[in-house]
Write a structure and sequence with these properties.
430 residues, Alpha-Beta Plaits, 3 domains, 6-stranded parallel beta sheet, 5-stranded parallel beta sheet, magnesium
Length: 430
Amino acid sequence: MDNYYIIDFDSTFTQVEALDELARISLANHPAKELIYAEIDRLTNLSMNGQLSFRESLSARVRLLEANREHLKKLISILKRKVSPSFLRNREFFKKHSDSALIVSGGFKEFIVPVVSPYHIKQENVYANTFTFDEEGKITGYDEGNPLSEEGGKVKLLRQLKLPGKIYGIGDGYSDFQLKESGLIERFFAFTENIERKSVSEKADHVTPSFDEFLYVNDLPRAISYPKNRILCLIVGSVPEISAHILKRDGFSIRVKQTFEEKYVKDVGMLLLGKDVKLDDEQLVRADKLKTIGYLGDSKYQVNREICNEKGIVLFDDKKGKKRNNEFIPRRMADFINKGDTYMSRNFPNLLLPKIEKAHRLLHIHRNVPGVMAHINQVFAENQINIVAQFLMTKGDIGYAVTDVDTQYDKRLLKQLRQIENTIKFRVLY
């Protein structure tokens, strides 16, 4: 039997609530627009938290809109730019699962279909409400015979569809959780990339801060090998808010502390340190998951670079104390995690890498001794791997090899690359 994936639209596939955005377009010149915006937002949240029936909320919001077809065109343009980042980078999933990925929403087909179609989601797999219009193109209401306009509409729809397989649901609202309550779906994933509703996430089978996490947990094709929300980024000392914001916005799991607490040593993946914070050598030695350190100051006497080299940890710092580095350094850290870039690193050879599509990027950090690259390429040859591109740079005792390969390969290849003599650290980027 096939698996089916039921995906919400508002605040899940997109970062925003579409009717809220439509109100901002249609009421832009209304004298009481701010009051109406606030009321629409209130009605949305009451419904999403299960405190107001969906039909009551929907009817009240549509009445307040005063929208027409021209407003809808503007809305579609906005929503296409507001697709949630983790959905944006996982188009390939929808291409491979075009028959089993369904958008089920209390929103409206008139704006949902144009937004999701570029992601290989079939029009017939979009289940949503439809507007009614008058002769001048003004929205007058909606089709009240559609089950999705009713309270518990998603449950009613799924009962009608009778999908022949296991069903997994992902969404941010109470109407999504009702699918789990009904017993119709295998597991419910509360999606929190854009907003977390505690009344929903507390009851979910799994809280998924990104679509990458959902795909990872279910072992499905995905753009990145390991969800960024599972990479712990610890921020220590006096660090400007903008620095933390950049890393949080990128999807990393952020903790802000005044000291490098012992409980984080084992699991920390990224460290951003304020000026004058001294990193303890013994803790650094034991931080086996640590991939990169950003230091907002001169790290020369504060971070042991020899240990960083031995453990394959990429160090970025702010030697000259420039204000722009409050943003530049966290971005460099993110670029290393996201793309493998080491540009402007203090201890690693500097590589600025191109983007790739339909390939996996493998990062191999090793001691700079003769023969390592020969061994790496021998492993690729023995496994009949097609190399799309390869980059190598060295600095002192560090060698850094980046290889982009076709996505089809036996997973034993990764084990063999890790076991090459003089390997310091190996990582599959995506």
